[in-house]
Structure formats: structure tokens, C-alpha cells
Amino acid sequence: MCGRYVIARATSDLLPSLLDGLGPLPDDFNVAPTTRVPVVRERHGRRELPLVRWGLVPSWYPDLKRRPQPINARIETVATSGMFRRPFAQARCIVPAAGYYEWVVTETGKQPHFIHQPDAGLAMAAVASAWPDPTKADDDPDRWVATMSIITRDAHVAPGEVHDRMPACLTPDSYDDWLGDHLGSDELLDRDSHEIAHDLVHYEVSRDANSVRNNGPHLIDPLP
């Protein structure tokens, strides 16, 4: 986790204090790594909703093809690791989601589950980075490639957990602190994500979700 999640236009209604005035979200019921996805960030005291590539590429990487490009950052080390320390301190963002998928291995194959918070969206904490493309001029608006990783935590605090990791999510009271420049540690995120974990529910969905080629609202319909 987190390797696949869901965005929907209705997510704006589920996260009103996060997305108010930022415009509609796209419908994507099978968001996969490397996709450009909307995130909420704060610049010059105002929130905005840019599209950011999922899979963090540090500014010091020589090229976009270098691996790894992690899609997740662990809450236990995000503030101190060489890969994430600077993004955590300077470029935090929030990934809005309707929910996410996890899989259970069964005798007949991988069974996807949709995990979400009833009557609310998920404000998944993330860190971002901007990679400068050396093939483009300094004044080229496409020179900087924005990327991000979603922060995860131990999932065993969630009832009936499906996987050992889960996204670390924020409560509405903490949005400003997370997006601002005055957050000194990860204590806020640990507290909030622990609280939200207890509200999560999950159910089995169609195995169509196993392939990124499949999309549409039917992917999150519960199986009979």
C-alpha cells in the first residue's frame, strides 16, 4: 500500500473543507503509479490543485528513467530519510481520494477490496518534489516535472485490516498545519492517521480492478 486508489468528482463533496473552490476532480476509478493526479498544495498562502506524477523523483536524480521512483514513503522514516527529508520539510501536499484498493491472496487468485471511510473522503498525506529536465531551457514552463509519494503507516491499528500498510490520512483540523511551513515533526500525522484508521471499512469488489486497463464506477461496487 498504497498502490492503487480512486478519485471521483463526488470526492469534492466528501472533502468540502479541503477542496472548496479548487475546481472539480476527474473520475478515475483505478489510479495507478506514474499517473498524473490532482493534489492539494499551498503556495503563497493559497491552496491550489495541480496535477502531479505519482512516483517521487528527487531534484538531484540525473534523469526520469532512474529507479527507484517510490510511490510510497513510510511514516516512520519520511522526516529523516535521504530520499524524503527535504520534501517532508518543504513540499508537503494532500492527495484527495474516495478510497483505495488492497488485495488478499486466495486459492483462486488475488481478490481486491475497496477500503474507504463511510460518508467522507480520504485526505492522504504526501510529499512532493520537482525534477528539472536538463533537456529543456530554464524558461520553459515544462522544464519542472512535479512528482509525489503517498505516506503510509502500519495498518494493524485499523479494524479488519487487509494489508500490513495503509495510507496515512489527515483530519480536517490538520490540513492547514500539514500544508503550511511550520510543521516540525510527524507527530500530527501519526495522531490523525491513527484516528482515521479506526473509521475505515472495506468490502470485496470485482477482480476487474486487478488490471489498470479497467476503469469505471462498477469497480467499487460491492460483490453480492
TrEMBL record:
<keyword id="KW-0190">Covalent protein-DNA linkage</keyword>
<dbReference type="GO" id="GO:0006508">
    <property type="term" value="P:proteolysis"/>
</dbReference>
<dbReference type="GO" id="GO:0008233">
    <property type="term" value="F:peptidase activity"/>
</dbReference>
<dbReference type="InterPro" id="IPR003738">
    <property type="entry name" value="SRAP"/>
</dbReference>
<dbReference type="InterPro" id="IPR036590">
    <property type="entry name" value="SRAP-like"/>
</dbReference>
<comment type="similarity">
    <text>Belongs to the SOS response-associated peptidase family.</text>
</comment>
<dbReference type="GO" id="GO:0016829">
    <property type="term" value="F:lyase activity"/>
</dbReference>
<keyword id="KW-0238">DNA-binding</keyword>
<keyword id="KW-0378">Hydrolase</keyword>
<protein>
    <recommendedName>
        <fullName>Abasic site processing protein</fullName>
        <ecNumber>3.4.-.-</ecNumber>
    </recommendedName>
</protein>
<keyword id="KW-0645">Protease</keyword>
<dbReference type="Pfam" id="PF02586">
    <property type="entry name" value="SRAP"/>
</dbReference>
<keyword id="KW-0456">Lyase</keyword>
<dbReference type="GO" id="GO:0003697">
    <property type="term" value="F:single-stranded DNA binding"/>
</dbReference>
<keyword id="KW-0227">DNA damage</keyword>
<dbReference type="GO" id="GO:0106300">
    <property type="term" value="P:protein-DNA covalent cross-linking repair"/>
</dbReference>
